[in-house]
Amino acid sequence: MRTNREIIAAHYDAAAHGDLAGMTADFAPEIRWIEAEGFPTAGRYTGADEIGASVFAAIATDWDGFGMHADELLESGDTVVALGRYRGIHRRTGRALDARAVHVWRLADGAITGFEQIADTRLVADAAEAVGA
């Protein structure tokens, strides 16, 4: 059986390869997902379908090469914390993003039950805004 850290590492690996099915493979049916206030996809979402449509699809539409580059995964019981950076190019503005981010993952019985994003949303907004806007 995989550790919780390995489950989250597999999510990031799938994301790096554009594998949506792999990204959501370990999601519990009622996973609760929180995007930070001030982030373009800010809000609370439940279930893989809603997360896919409201978060993953929106990011894929607006960003080229967007991803969380997790430098460190810290596991404590049913919680995994990812420390890393968001990187990508905003499609409309062409501006690069490189912002510190933290993800807090909750798991139970080998399934991902919760996610919370903590990020420097100002840097995300700066990349999404046209220069001089």
From TrEMBL:
Highest rank taxon of the organism: Bacteria
UniProt cross-references to InterPro entries, sorted A to Z: NTF2-like_dom_sf, SnoaL-like
Domain SnoaL-like, chain residue ranges per copy: 9-113
Pfam family, one: SnoaL_2
PANTHER family recorded: BLR2505 PROTEIN
UniProt protein name: Nuclear transport factor 2 family protein
Taxonomic lineage from the root: Bacteria, Bacillati, Actinomycetota, Actinomycetes, Micrococcales
